[in-house]
Q: What sequence folds into this?
């Protein structure tokens, strides 16, 4: 066996797969406990109304029903959830905090808001009992349109605030107003970018069991943040943190909404278990998921880009509205991400960005893979495309002209990022990534030869190529503990959970390199607060970066202990020692070796004296907290063909060049990118939550909310560039969201190109219906057909407005 | 109040009393403890609940347990029977030799991430591969089009099927 | 959702008026109605059972309040239906116009539908409401015919029992 690092960067097959493939992995709904009861929630049909009364008497009387609770039954336990993310210290910020309640009281503010909890012997009986409950709601007009919500006289989601403004924030850099006068062209458009449900195939669930004898509460929860949930529940229930164990077992996809915390169900199921003295299980069904689990939704941007004659960006001015839903527990993470990610890999000397977060009578909005970065990327990339067309410039060329050069790092953009620190890019080589993408998609060949040929044959083919930054690896911190057991097996415990991103393998790879063993000998435990209870969770593409570096550091500390002990045991100098195959050997003298397991046993004597200041065993705990987040980057390129009659868009090729610094396992990285692109394609064409005027969701099922299938997602050609991050020892950056972020921008550009500039795609999603309307001048909205006259702009102060 | 049902599940005879409205998916998961079959939507679109009924792929969320009376059901647990309930499989290096060749191919091709949709996809593919010895990519994608995966973007799943088919042909 | 239309009936306006406001007739002719009583001069309460796509029998408690009543010309209704699968709420205007020996009924309803039924049955709501409207009007027309036939001297009524039209079909595909 080779010595020295060689697992880092290897395509190691996953250690967790056998369990998952054979159906033996424990997911939350697989938990089955003696005496377990089942919960169901009665949810509001009305999006907005005065809740005058709830009559549960008939439900309580139904055989098989053990308890029914309304807000009044919760006593002191009823209180709004915690505000999870405080807003960054932006000067002049307005922030109105309103968080979700466990059961509605006085008002209902979105369709699907929980009104009552039924606990029964089976889920079937609990759902029967939901029909017994009579709710007296006086409906109120629903707030759904973002602009109407801010108009005088609009109905108010929260009367106490006097308006539907949840937040208002402006970040500026330079002086856009002054600089604009010197622009050669100003491109101005309105963009509408909608998202949708994360729609993980596993819905949410919570199982809670209180052991009255040991006075311990165990909770299984489909959460991406088991440690904060454990700490919060302990506080709410009046227990010590050490009395509460939260287990996030195997989780069927997270994608963001499973890190929203203190959902009503998460807060009530443990309370019910304690109160009823029996385990309680709640598993969400798919329809509930559309209302009861958070989602992302619409932003409307009125944005303009001022450019010089050579295509250099002078500045960007953006005013946007953001739909935060009925409550805003997650603060301003999404709009801040939009604001920051808009800047992309470009030098933007002047920036003036203002947003208003708006309360609406719809479910809560919290990050879904991409977390607002999509919106920023779409606006900037579309503005650049429109500028390129105005200037008669090649769209790759305009991007290259504005890239931050490779020696520009660290680059401080002077506005605040979601980790409250100034947005600073650590490293990147954007030109190199673009070169790779241009080569991989065959840009020159396509534009010069293939496209003209196909067009001459009447085919509408087009290419889109876009560039983006993804801020990843933010703090605050994560931790890990590495232990060598007397058997020689290695155990790693960390506080983050795993929802498919391969931590059981990637973290084992990190440890294997440091301790010289095969990853299959390393057992990784994630998401169990009994194993590790300091940390925050998996979100914002930070797991590998932050927890990975903590795992690495803990392994390095164990290695130091190993060397010290082994030097003593083998009578050698530490520098002569090599760790390989689970042993420590003297270099060049294989006879002098000791197994790691034996060293571990030796390090934990039952008798005798130890040197003062030493620790027993071969174990170490380490924490990693980066100074700030880092900047991964990439380029997406796509070739599409549009059927002019059906307006279906076929994706012929899709290329991603991605830079996530040092990849731990390229196979896992590529899986994340391919999966992310699938979500991006869904976002671009298929996925749309359709709301009625009265706040009703009209497509709360997979029959009508369309997820991309195997027929809709091509194989993505993935290439890597590597600019390591100087912000962590491994040099790694995040990759979880990269595939999803710029896909719609790339595809929009490609569709426009395919149609020869006959339409402007300014709205996402772009369904065949909408594309048809754009082509034929219908009322579909979402951009408009562009007349030659409309493209005329007054030189110097023209705004290029095409109405 | 229960209706007696008897059926064969994964080769073993099973007899229970069930409510008429009990879904087959709930029967398998909770009455029989075969939790490998997963429920993603309960309205027959995502395919995560796919099992074999008399050898054909069906959505167990769209069937009642009583409808399976007298029939044969196979779930994902039947693909690698030797690994059922075995401990020490957390570090799955050794022991993966007992995986079904299709499962083996999935592992090799990184055709799963969270693994929740995977059992349904495996059970959809078992009868497909029995009838299509060397399927092309278009055929495979068509066969998979009734199974939703939110993690992988499908590419590696297609690769796994190609790999499994090729190996089966070589072994034959 | 707007449901509107017109229908011609062979009877005189006051006859049609009487039938439209008779709870027994409503119960018989409006598809899915299981019971309907006149709880007050201007208020009807009852139960309806409707199928929409995958939901085969959604039960609703329905309350209808009359207003702006100008006999025998027109009235408006406030409709409030609530059940475990959702709600339907809105208003409707009914206008009767004499047309020779017959009557033309004009109706226009503006209804909101919400809850589970709206969330999973959205694609079907339009066609279901058209189907139910047609079934209801056809049943009403048969009832009108039956009553008129029974009232004719030496009447060619269909049965000695009083010429009751057959009950409505449940509105569901």
A:
């Amino acid at each position: 066996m080779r010595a020295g690092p060689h697992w880092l960067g290897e395509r190691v097959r996953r250690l967790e797969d056998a369990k998952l493939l054979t159906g033996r992995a424990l997911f939350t709904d697989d938990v089955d406990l003696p005496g377990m009861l089942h919960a169901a929630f009665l949810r509001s049909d009305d999006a907005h109304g005065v809740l005058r009364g709830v009559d549960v008497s008939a439900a309580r009387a139904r055989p098989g029903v053990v308890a029914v609770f309304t807000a009044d039954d919760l006593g002191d336990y009823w209180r709004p959830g915690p505000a999870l993310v405080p807003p960054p210290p932006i000067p002049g910020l307005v922030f109105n905090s309103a968080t979700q309640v466990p059961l509605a009281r006085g008002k209902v503010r979105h369709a699907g808001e929980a009104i009552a909890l039924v606990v029964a012997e089976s889920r079937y009986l609990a759902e029967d009992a939901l029909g017994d409950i009579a709710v007296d709601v006086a409906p109120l007009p629903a707030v759904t349109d973002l602009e109407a919500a801010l108009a005088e006289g609009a109905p108010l989601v929260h009367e106490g605030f006097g308006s539907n403004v949840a937040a208002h924030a402006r970040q500026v850099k330079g002086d856009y107003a002054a600089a604009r006068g010197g622009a050669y062209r100003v491109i101005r458009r309105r963009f509408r970018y909608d998202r949708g449900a994360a729609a993980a195939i596993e819905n949410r669930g919570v199982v809670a069991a209180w052991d009255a004898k040991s006075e311990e509460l165990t909770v299984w929860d489909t959460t991406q943040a088991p440690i904060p949930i454990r700490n919060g529940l302990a506080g709410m229930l009046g227990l010590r943190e050490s009395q509460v164990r939260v287990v996030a077992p195997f989780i069927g996809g997270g994608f963001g909404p499973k890190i929203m915390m203190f959902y009503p169900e998460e807060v009530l199921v443990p309370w019910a278990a304690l109160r009823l003295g029996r385990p309680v299980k709640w598993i969400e069904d798919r329809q509930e998921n559309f209302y009861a689990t958070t989602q992302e939704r619409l932003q409307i941007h009125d944005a303009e880009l001022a450019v010089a004659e050579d295509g250099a960006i002078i500045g960007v001015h953006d005013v946007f509205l953001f739909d935060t839903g009925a409550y805003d527990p997650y603060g301003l993470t999404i709009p801040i991400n939009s604001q920051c990610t808009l800047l992309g890999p470009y030098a933007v000397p002047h920036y003036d960005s203002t947003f208003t977060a708006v309360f609406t009578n719809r479910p809560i909005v919290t990050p879904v893979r991409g977390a607002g970065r999509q919106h920023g990327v779409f606006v900037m990339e579309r503005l650049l495309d429109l500028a390129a067309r105005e200037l008669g410039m090649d769209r790759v060329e305009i991007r290259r002209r504005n890239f931050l050069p490779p020696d520009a790092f660290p680059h401080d953009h002077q506005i605040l990022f979601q980790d409250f620190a100034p947005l600073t890019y650590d490293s990147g080589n954007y030109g190199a990534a673009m070169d790779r993408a241009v080569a991989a998609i065959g840009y020159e060949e396509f534009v010069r030869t293939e496209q003209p040929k196909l067009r001459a044959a009447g085919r509408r083919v087009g290419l889109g190529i876009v560039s983006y930054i993804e801020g990843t690896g933010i703090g605050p911190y994560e931790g890990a503990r590495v232990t060598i057991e007397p058997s020689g097996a290695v155990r790693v415990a960390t506080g983050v959970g795993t929802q498919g991103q391969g931590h059981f393998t990637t973290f084992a790879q990190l440890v294997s390199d440091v301790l010289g063993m095969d990853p299959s000998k390393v057992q990784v435990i994630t998401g169990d607060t009994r194993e590790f209870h300091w940390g925050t969770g998996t979100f914002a593409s930070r797991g590998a970066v932050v927890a990975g570096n903590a795992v690495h550091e803990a392994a390095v500390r164990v290695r130091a202990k190993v060397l010290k002990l082994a030097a003593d045991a083998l009578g050698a100098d530490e520098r002569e020692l090599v760790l390989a195959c689970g042993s420590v050997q003297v270099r060049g003298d294989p006879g002098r070796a000791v197994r790691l397991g034996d060293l571990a046993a030796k390090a934990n004597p039952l008798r005798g004296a130890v040197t003062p200041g030493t620790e027993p065993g071969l174990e170490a705990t380490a924490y990693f907290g980066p100074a700030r987040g880092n900047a991964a980057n990439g380029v997406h390129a796509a070739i599409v063909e549009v059927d002019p009659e059906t307006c279906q868009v076929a994706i012929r090729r899709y290329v991603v060049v991605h830079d996530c610094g040092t990849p731990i396992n390229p196979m896992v990285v590529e899986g994340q990118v391919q999966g992310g692109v699938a979500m991006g394609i869904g976002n671009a064409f298929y996925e749309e939550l359709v709301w009625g005027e009265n706040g009703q969701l009209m497509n709360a099922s997979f029959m009508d909310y369309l997820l991309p299938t195997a027929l809709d997602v091509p194989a993505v050609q993935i290439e890597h560039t590597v600019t390591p991050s100087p912000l962590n020892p491994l040099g790694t950056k995040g990759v979880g969201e990269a595939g999803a972020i710029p896909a719609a921008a790339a595809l929009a550009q490609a569709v426009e190109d395919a149609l020869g500039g006959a339409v402007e795609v300014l709205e996402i999603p772009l369904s065949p219906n909408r594309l048809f309307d754009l082509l034929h001048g219908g009322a579909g909205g979402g951009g408009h057909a562009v007349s030659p006259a409309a493209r005329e702009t007054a030189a110097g102060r023209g705004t290029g407005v095409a109405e | 109040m229960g209706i007696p049902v008897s059926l064969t599940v994964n080769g073993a005879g099973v007899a229970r009393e069930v409510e008429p409205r009990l879904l087959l998916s709930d029967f398998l998961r909770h009455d029989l403890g075969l939790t490998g079959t997963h429920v993603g939507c309960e309205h027959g679109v995502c395919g995560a609940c796919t099992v074999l009924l008399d050898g054909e792929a069906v959505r167990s969320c769209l069937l009642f347990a009583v409808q399976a009376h007298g029939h044969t059901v196979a779930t994902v647990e039947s693909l690698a029977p030797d690994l059922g309930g075995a401990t020490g499989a957390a570090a799955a290096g050794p022991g993966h030799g007992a995986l079904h060749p299709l499962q083996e191919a999935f592992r090799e091709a990184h055709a799963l991430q969270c693994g929740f949709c995977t059992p349904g996809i495996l059970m959809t593919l078992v009868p497909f591969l029995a009838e299509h010895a060397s399927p092309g990519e278009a055929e495979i994608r068509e066969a998979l089009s009734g199974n939703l995966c939110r993690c992988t973007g499908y590419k590696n799943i297609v690769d796994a099927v190609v790999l499994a088919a090729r190996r089966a042909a070589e072994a034959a | 959702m707007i449901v509107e239309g017109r229908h011609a009936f062979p009877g005189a306006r006051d006859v049609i008026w009487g039938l439209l406001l008779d709870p027994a007739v409503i119960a018989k002719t409006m598809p899915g109605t299981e019971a309907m009583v006149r709880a007050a001069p201007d208020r009807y309460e009852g139960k309806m059972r409707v199928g929409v796509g995958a939901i085969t029998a959604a039960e609703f408690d329905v309350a209808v309040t009359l207003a702006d009543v100008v006999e025998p010309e027109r009235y408006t209704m406030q409709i409030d239906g609530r059940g475990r699968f959702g709600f339907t709420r809105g208003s409707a205007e009914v206008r009767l116009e004499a047309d020779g020996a017959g009557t033309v009924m004009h109706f226009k309803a503006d209804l909101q539908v919400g809850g589970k039924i709206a969330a999973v049955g959205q694609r079907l709501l339009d066609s279901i409401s058209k189907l139910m409207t047609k079934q209801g009007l056809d049943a009403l027309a048969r009832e009108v015919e039956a009553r008129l036939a029974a009232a004719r001297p030496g009447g060619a009524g269909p049965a000695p029992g009083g010429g009751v039209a057959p009950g409505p079909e449940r509105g569901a595909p």
